[in-house]
Amino acid sequence: MERRNFIKASALVAAASATGTAMASKSTPSASKEVYEWKVYHFKNGGAKSKIDGFYKEALIPYLNKKGVKVGAFGEYSQSEPPVIYYLVIYPSLADYQTIKKELWKDSGFLQAAKGYFETTAELGTFTRYETYLLEAFDAFPQLHMPSKDRSLIELRTYENNNEEAGQRKIKMFNSEEIALFDKAGLRCVFFGEILAGPQMPALMYMLEFKDMEERKASWKKFGDSEGWNVLRNKQEYANTVSVVNKIFLLPLDYSQI
Question: By percentage, how much of the chain surpasses pLDDT 90?
């Protein structure tokens, strides 16, 4: 009798454990989802840009590449002065982001390569300050898609939300249906990310690539006129998900890795 009760209890524990594991796997973010750092540098004058270019090309990017991390570098399409530089640092995971950040200041190769930059900018500096956004990739777009070789125009969109719940519904909208509609319309996506920390929150950010403005206009028109989008945009569950849409147009710099 005791043996039967023991077997029965063991089976119940095993079943509960399996159920708990299954539930945890559904709620736990995928380990394969990338984490992005989006950095925006503002300058007082155009001459300072070369110092940041050199720091990234000669010190930071070589270090990050050793860790399996690629870096995108972009300037503004308008070529305004003083310039603004944008960097996209692509980490395999949040754990990698944390580890690599800590190891950076212990790496003798990086410290030696960056020594000149640190010494020449310690007193006068080079940028007014930079903004940093930390993002986690969407479930439906867990890894960045490398832009095609013929790309010459990058569009970065940031969607602000009135509250956190609205932001989560917009992310669900992308994951469940909207990204697929982008594909059908020929909108070439580079990445999608939920902003975990940054100047604009709650918000999400994503990047698209185009050959030129003409292709961009045609692709967005195809998407906007599609039956799928006009059905999706009118679903009540996705009402009031976006309060502000910010758009900037970028050009890859010569040392950009994406």
Answer: 78
